[in-house]
Task: inverse folding
């Protein structure tokens, strides 16, 4: 792991609760890690969303926040930062990524319209479907194979996409969506060559290409490191080249842009942008703040600049690689290659005795918390199943690394907790769902264990700090 290009100035205390208290907290949370209180968590790898450490430059910039309702200086600084980094002509701030997804779907999706995409993301798909759109997975098959070492598992299957575009009248395709560092496949990048292929097809069929650019910086770094011909291209230039291939982008700025809240809808087309600004006043706020404060826009503008800093991005990706490497050395099944923002445990191989209808990834995430206060997230049947449709897709637990927050020691501790749970995996039964919300059920569903759940151990097997 490379040494971090930052040092720590402000710290936040964390404590590891005793095991009986963790069990109580887990039961009170219905075995759903989203429902734990953060005070009960020791190492929080639930998400990289809104959990980064701000830089001193971001904090200083926040002092300059212009909180004017309209015409805020901070908006124009944000607009300039987005235009410079990515080149889109129109910049619409939103409260977070799903705010941008909502506007985009309202602009382009009508009942029966198709949205071909490299795999789904939970909120992205939900907004399309709420408007009657039809989500179509056109990712390459390797995306769904945790053992495939394909370097660009975020690629679109160009043949499949061509079929979809040729079969549908162009006006029935709302847009083609391509996500950078494909979250649900394990944070896997697309190659620039593949994105160029998508671009050609969308131009040929007259369909907009929309990037989910939430993790564009790490995707650009993987292109630089893995795709021939880009080793000498500067990261900011590569990021810009990726964005140049699309017509519009949604960003959840809570990831690459290091802010606790904020998102962006970026658009090239003048008419579409005008319609988006009409919608933003209904759903988010005035177009000059779109649901976030002036000081948030200042932190975001500065965060955008830092997100193209190769040393920062490289160190971040090396943290996932370090944790993944430790787990692989110990024979623990994870998604390979290790992706951008997380290490994903393969729950099907980790808990082969738990059938997928009994939520193995949910159970494994619960066990990691119980064993060592480590919070992770289910990314399997609970997140992915569609109504009552049968589901046999990926069954993963995401150990997500917040940016600039945890040290190598924290990650080594997490590896010890995972190892301890792996050694005692026979004591983890499946779960029964006791409450199922209608939308995005993974956030708030509740479960109970189908049997004795990870017996208490006399001495905790991992070294307590
Ligand atoms: C790829 C991707 N797109 C969109 C979103 C939604 O963004 P937000 O959580 O800011 O609403 C996320 C959030 O995790 C994401 O990972």
Result:
């Amino acid at each position: 792991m490379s040494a971090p290009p930052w040092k720590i100035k402000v710290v936040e205390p964390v404590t590891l609760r005793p095991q009986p208290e963790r069990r109580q907290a887990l039961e009170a949370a219905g075995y759903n890690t989203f429902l734990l209180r953060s005070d009960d968590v020791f190492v929080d790898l639930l998400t990289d969303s809104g959990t980064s450490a701000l830089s001193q430059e971001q904090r200083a910039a926040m002092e300059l926040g212009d909180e004017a309702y309209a015409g805020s200086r901070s908006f124009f600084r944000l607009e300039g930062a987005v235009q410079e980094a990515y080149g889109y002509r129109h910049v619409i701030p939103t409260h977070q990524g799903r705010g941008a997804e909502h506007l985009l779907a309202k602009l382009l999706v009508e009942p029966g319209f198709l949205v071909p995409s490299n795999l789904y993301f939970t909120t992205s798909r939900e907004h399309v479907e709420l408007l009657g759109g039809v989500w179509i997975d056109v990712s390459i098959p390797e995306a769904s194979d945790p053992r495939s070492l394909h370097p660009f598992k975020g690629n679109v299957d160009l043949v499949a996409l061509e079929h979809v575009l040729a079969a549908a009248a162009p006006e029935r395709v709302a847009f083609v969506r391509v996500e950078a560092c494909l979250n649900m496949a394990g944070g896997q990048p697309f190659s620039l060559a593949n994105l160029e292929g998508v671009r050609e097809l969308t131009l040929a069929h007259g369909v907009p290409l929309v990037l989910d650019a939430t993790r564009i910086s790490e995707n650009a770094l993987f292109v630089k490191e893995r795709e021939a011909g880009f080793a000498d291209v500067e990261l900011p230039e590569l990021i810009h080249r990726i964005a140049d291939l699309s017509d519009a982008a949604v960003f959840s700025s809570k990831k690459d842009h290091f802010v606790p809240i904020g998102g962006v809808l970026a658009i090239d087309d003048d008419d579409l942008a005008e319609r988006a600004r009409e919608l933003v006043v209904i759903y988010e706020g005035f177009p000059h703040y779109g649901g976030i404060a002036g000081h948030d826009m200042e932190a975001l503008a500065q965060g955008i600049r830092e997100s193209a800093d190769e040393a920062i991005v490289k160190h971040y990706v090396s943290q996932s690689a370090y944790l993944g490497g430790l787990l692989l050395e110990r024979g623990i099944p994870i998604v390979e290659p290790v992706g951008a923002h997380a290490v994903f445990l393969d729950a099907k191989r980790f808990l082969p005795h738990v059938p997928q209808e009994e939520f193995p990834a949910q159970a494994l995430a619960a066990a990691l918390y119980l064993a060592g206060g480590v919070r992770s997230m289910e990314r399997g049947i609970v997140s992915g199943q569609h109504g009552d449709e049968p589901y046999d897709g990926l069954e993963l637990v995401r150990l997500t690394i917040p940016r600039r927050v945890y040290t190598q020691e924290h990650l080594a501790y997490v590896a010890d907790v995972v190892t301890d749970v792996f050694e005692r995996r026979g004591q983890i039964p499946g779960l029964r769902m006791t409450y199922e919300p209608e939308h995005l059920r993974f956030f708030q569903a509740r479960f109970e264990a189908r049997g004795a759940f990870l017996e208490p151990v006399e001495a905790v097997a991992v070294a307590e700090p």
